[in-house]
């Protein structure tokens, strides 16, 4: 066998072994279905035993790496499918509709999510031998990006996940592994997309400031000129670029943040619908119920009852 072909086969076998080990370690470190935060800060493990219904949610700056199964995310009319061969980079907080499309009890959907740290990106960028080219504002587009998962990135991720079994070492070694993961993305094909998050004068960075304001003050009435000022844009420019990136207006985005938080309060903390609506800034319970049903497909009371029944059956 020629050397090149031999190397290709060896690399393929190496990545398959890495994915198999990652799948085993994720399965051993999650108590069941759902999203599970870890002892390693910034790392979450995700497990699903069956395909899911489309679920509206907000993705935050992160790296999503599937090791088994498949998932799709829809942003506006754009569809992104990520699997063991492709990772998803989320370069700013954005509302999407997510759905697990391949999973069984025997071969569950297994994924890990790593938070992107803009400070680490900004620190690494000047040290690169060949810095990623800046992405022109007109080309930045949507903040979801897919790329092939290469062996060096998988290797760094595997070393991070192994630290779950040695928590005494995680405090020292996890920051090093996370730094390398950021580096691997920066020197890969999505390096310019990741770098755009940290370019102070770039459109992505300015939009991120507007989104941070909406996230921090989602329960308050906000004037569009205040949001535009946070992004150092005119209201009309903000409206145009915000919609191009997120497929919604800033106020629509704020509404979705409110409804997402209300859903979390009801399902995870047992808060009643009326109280949850008030806490996220709704003055009218009927308006809350109407908008909740439009986003999630069921009125809040029915969804809470279904969740309670599910917990009773599981118990």
- Backbone CA Rg: 21 Å
Low-confidence stretches: 4-10, 309-315
Q: What is the overall shape?
A: globular
Largest sheet: 6 strands, antiparallel
Mean pLDDT across all amino acids: 87
Strand order of the largest sheet: 1-2-9-4-7-10
Topology (elements, then pairings):
Blueprint: H1 3-28, E1 34-37, E2 43-48, E3 55-59, E4 62-68, E5 70-75, E6 78-82, E7 86-90, E8 94-102, E9 109-115, H2 118-124, E10 144-148, H3 151-162, H4 167-186, H5 191-196, H6 203-216, H7 224-230, H8 235-246, H9 250-269, H10 273-279, H11 285-296, H12 300-314
Antiparallel strand pairs: 1-2, 2-9, 3-8, 4-7, 4-9, 5-6, 5-8, 7-10
Protein name: AraC family transcriptional regulator
GO molecular function: DNA-binding transcription factor activity; sequence-specific DNA binding
InterPro entries: Homeodomain-like_sf, HTH_AraC, Tscrpt_reg_HTH_AraC_N
Summary of the model, kept short:
This protein is an alpha+beta fold and 315 residues long.
Structural commentary:
The protein is an alpha+beta fold and 315 residues long. The chain folds into two domains: 3-196, Sandwich (Jelly Rolls), CATH 2.60.120; 201-315, Arc Repressor Mutant, subunit A (Orthogonal Bundle). Helices cover 50% and strands 19% of the residues. It has helices spanning 3-28, 118-124, 151-162, 167-186, 191-196, 203-216, 224-230, 235-246, 250-269, 273-279, 285-296, 300-314, and strands spanning 34-37, 43-48, 55-59, 62-68, 70-75, 78-82, 86-90, 94-102, 109-115, 144-148. The strands form two sheets. Strands 1-2-9-4-7-10 form a six-stranded antiparallel beta sheet. The protein has a four-stranded antiparallel beta sheet with strand order 3-8-5-6. Helix 3 packs antiparallel against helix 4, helix 6 (203-216) crosses helix 9 (250-269) and helix 7 (224-230) packs across helix 8 (235-246). Residues 4-10 and 309-315 have low confidence and may be disordered.
């Amino acid at each position: 066998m020629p050397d090149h072909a031999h190397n290709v086969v060896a690399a393929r076998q190496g990545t398959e072994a890495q994915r198999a080990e990652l799948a085993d370690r994720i399965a051993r470190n999650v108590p069941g279905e759902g999203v599970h935060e870890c002892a390693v800060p910034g790392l979450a493990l995700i497990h699903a035993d069956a395909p899911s219904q489309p679920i509206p949610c907000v993705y935050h700056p992160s790296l999503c790496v599937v090791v088994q199964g498949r998932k799709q995310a829809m942003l506006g009319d754009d569809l992104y499918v990520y699997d063991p061969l492709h990772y998803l980079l989320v370069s700013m907080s954005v509302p999407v509709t997510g759905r697990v499309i391949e999973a069984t009890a025997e071969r569950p959907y297994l994924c890990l999510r790593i938070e992107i740290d803009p400070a680490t990106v900004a620190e690494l960028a000047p040290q690169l031998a060949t810095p990623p080219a800046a992405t022109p504002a007109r080309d930045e587009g949507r903040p979801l990006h897919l790329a092939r998962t290469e062996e060096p990135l998988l290797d760094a991720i595997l070393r991070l996940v192994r630290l779950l079994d040695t928590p005494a070492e995680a405090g020292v070694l996890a920051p090093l592994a996370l730094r390398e993961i950021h580096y691997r993305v920066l020197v890969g094909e999505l390096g310019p997309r990741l770098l755009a998050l940290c370019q102070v004068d770039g459109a992505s960075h300015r939009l991120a400031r507007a989104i941070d304001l909406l996230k921090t003050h989602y329960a308050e009435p906000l004037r569009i000129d205040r949001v535009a000022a946070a992004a150092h844009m005119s209201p009309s420019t903000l409206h145009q670029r915000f919609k191009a990136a997120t497929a919604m207006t800033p106020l629509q985005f704020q509404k979705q943040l409110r409804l997402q938080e209300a859903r979390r309060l009801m399902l995870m903390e047992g808060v009643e619908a009326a109280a949850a609506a008030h806490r996220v800034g709704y003055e009218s319970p009927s308006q809350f119920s109407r908008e909740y049903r439009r986003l999630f497909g069921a009125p809040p009371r029915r969804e809470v009852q279904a969740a309670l029944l599910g917990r009773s059956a599981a118990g």
